[in-house]
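The aim of this short unit is practical: by the end, you should be able to scan a pair of folded records and say something sensible about each. We start with the first protein, listed as its amino acid sequence and then its structure tokens.
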Amino acid sequence: MLLHIPQILTPEEVAEFRRRLEEGDWTDGRETVGAQGAEVKRNEQLRDTSPLKAELGDAVLRALRRSPLFFAAALPRRILPPRFNRYAGGGEYGFHVDGAVMSLGPDEQMRSDISCTLFLNDPEEYDGGRLVVSDTYGEHVIAERAGDAVIYPSSSLHRVEPVTRGVRLASFFWVQSLVRDDATRRILFELDTSIQKLTVDGADRDAVLQLTSVYHNLLRRWSEC
């Protein structure tokens, strides 16, 4: 499921992130990928050991907790600590697929079900730099507003087009969902969305309660805890 999630960060938070990232300890983005990824990746990232990365990453996680839409769509079980990247001067990331299993520490790993890009500047500030996600319906070209995020299955081929003017800033991270299968997550998300709309519209209370029961029983059947 490819989904745009608006306003994860407020404009004030975006401005603060931008100001702090100007002080960032940026390094070659190829340091965090394998040999195959390094062949097509040309960008910069905050070092994984950077205190600024940890501080801003925690701020992203707090912001995500404010988004019911993110939680309804992702059903997160684990989230890899957010990272930050910068593309400029022709920087790009060619078509690749994200690693299936990622390290949370020396003795802890997580499966990557969902990839997320959180945009930190508006698309008018740079040329190129579009996120391109390829799936069975073709290629989707994405460039959202600062503070907005997009999520998509980590199994998808995707790339970032070369940035030919300006700088593209973003945070990115991966989610292990309570529900492994993307199609199953979509069913649950659409059911949850329908329940919320029926509630707002004042639908029959007993019918909404029954649908809510169906949602939770399906989640109970399909979730991995």
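Turning to the second protein, read its sequence before its tokens, just as you did above.
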Amino acid sequence: MISKAVIPVAGLGTRMLPASKSIPKEMLPIVDRPAIHWVVEEAVQAGITEIILVNHAAKGAIEDYFDINAELDAQLQAKGKESLRQSLRNVIPENVSVISVRQREPLGLGHAVLQAAPVIGEEPFVVMLPDVLLEAADEGVDLGAMIERYQNSGAAQVMVEPVPMDRVDQYGVVSLEGPAPVRGESRVMNGVVEKPHPEDAPSNLSVVGRYVLPGSIMALLKTTRPGAGGEIQLTDAIAELIGQAPVEAYAMTGKTFDCGNKAGYLEAFIHFALRHPELAPVARDIVERHCAH
């Protein structure tokens, strides 16, 4: 059973400045909880029990969020606010652990993942990019389906979704041996390239930011040379893995939100506010009033 998820959170979040100047972008709220909470919750729903944050020295607030604040806990208990107290104590289930490793230099996603190698060892694991929030479809949690697919077939899984061809230069893009997979299914990949020019793109299937990978990817990352942007790209290591082991593109069924930029963050905030069990009526009224003007 795959139990470990690596979540790289060391980035400085320059696309979210000035908000991210003193607050980690992963701690910016999506309605009533920070974005990183949504990502960890997705991991837990998929059966993950060990969360490995690849962090930066200046972003200790992320680690603190998943710990118990003893002073606040005592104040809430003294004031009889037991329901709120328990909600804070149960940010993650008791059987789920969160640890942190450091990425001392911003050398790319591949380099960030490599920092978790001592914890991962030879085990298969999940990589989740915290900028991407996913809302599950009726079919279930996509990450859970990817893990099940890996365990049944032994093939690494890379989540993909189609994007307009004029935007492929913003993403990793996969090439396939056959037709594109239907929603909730996987197809064998024969290549992946980081941010290709539209005229050179092998398809319009972009990598979403969820991966299920074998532990052997770590050995490949150790020898991966800097690629696009002068960084060590996870995409390049996956491209090399394809020559050694099966890798499949999994077509997601849910909906994605890119919270790494202001427009995507705003969309996610509004979307989840309109679905919040308590705040949805208020959010709907606010949206309708502003649309009326």
